[in-house]
Specification:
The protein is elongated. The longest helix has 33 residues. Strands 7-5-6-4-1-2-3-8 form an eight-stranded mixed sheet, sandwiched between helices. With 332 residues, it is an alpha/beta fold.
Length: 332
């Protein structure tokens, strides 16, 4: 599809260009967020689209929110949200979705890796109206090998545990229809995983190949611990681990029964047989380890249920600024 053709066709049917809400979680991005907004705004204007930006400062203690405030003062189509502390990228995204008012919502990062020049590729497919969600796909990743390995493992587990379509590669650079965004914001649990919510909401998804750019400033705020914590949110969207625990328990019980019968038979035919202490200890340790593992898994489910019942907040807003414009200055 040619440049802006999708947006032009939609505009012609209603007379008003569709509005795109760009939601960006921000974390120590005072040196890059203005460039992200300016570049993306230029692309949206060139495509003839109305726009708004929802910038969520996720507990950054540098000048990130000051930069967001400056952007909102210059452009009334910029909404700035400041968290009371760091709550995590996906919690920041769902806060941004609740403040978005566009016909389509585009999620981006704040570090120029999800580059403004690639937005049109996603929007052209999304604005055709065939798919509910359009994900960016990176043929050439610009990440450390351990991050790629972790991402691939997460994609695999999400497919197994949540039924993610095999041919879809999820990412945080995406465009979704408004009704999908509204469905996501109904979720009020404290453990948020945007891709998990998307896979529950729809199967009409597509991938679009885009270029993956290098981070312009600094390094990723994700550590191995935070990535593991993010991955563990898959427990919110699947009962498969608990069912697996039941299956493993049943298999081990059957194996133990067979082993017991074998030992009794051997003892009957050979009364002088000495029982093996090492084999008994090996089986005992293995079974005890599995019991503790699955007790921990069940405890994780119960803990998350406890936090949800006790209304642990997804986020706490300190301040919201801007958001008075329609984003049509140069688009019409």
């Amino acid at each position: 599809m040619g440049k802006g053709k999708a947006s032009a066709s939609i505009a012609s049917s209603s007379g008003i260009p569709p509005k795109v809400s760009v939601v960006i979680p921000c974390y120590y991005s005072e040196k890059t967020i203005a460039k992200v907004v300016e570049g993306t705004r230029a692309e949206l204007r060139r495509m003839g689209l109305r726009y708004e930006f929802v910038l969520v400062n996720d507990g950054s203690t540098d000048g990130t929110f000051d930069e967001i405030c400056k952007l909102s003062e210059v452009d009334p189509c910029v909404v700035g949200i400041n968290f009371a502390r760091n709550f995590g990228q996906h919690n920041a995204i769902i806060a941004g979705l609740r403040h978005a008012s566009g016909d389509y919502v585009m999620l981006m990062d704040d570090d120029m890796q999800t580059h403004p020049s690639q937005c049109e590729k996603l929007l052209d497919v999304a604005l055709e109206g065939v798919y509910d969600v359009v994900f960016a796909k990176y043929p050439d990743h610009r990440e450390a090998w351990w991050r790629r390995l972790g991402s691939n493992f997460t994609l695999w587990t999400m497919r197994v545990l949540t039924g993610r379509p095999k041919d879809i590669e999820a990412s945080n650079f995406l465009v979704m229809k408004r009704f999908i965004s509204d469905e996501l914001t109904r979720y009020d649990g404290p453990y948020v995983y945007i891709q998990g919510l998307l896979f529950q909401a729809t199967r009409k998804m597509a991938n679009v190949a885009v270029e993956h750019f290098d981070r312009e400033v600094g390094t990723s705020g994700y550590t191995f611990k935070s990535l593991f914590r993010l991955w563990s949110t898959v427990l919110n969207f699947s009962m498969v681990p608990l069912r697996l625990a039941s299956l493993v328990g049943a298999v081990l019980g059957a194996v133990g029964l067979v082993f017991a019968v074998v030992v009794v038979v051997q003892r009957i035919f050979d009364p002088s047989m000495q029982m093996g202490w090492s084999s008994i200890m090996a089986v005992l340790l293995m079974c005890s380890g599995l019991v503790l593992l699955f007790l921990g898994l069940i405890g994780e489910y119960l803990g998350r249920l406890f936090m949800t019942v006790n209304k642990m907040p997804q986020y706490v807003l300190r301040k919201v600024v801007g958001g008075k414009g329609e984003g049509v200055e140069d688009a019409l």
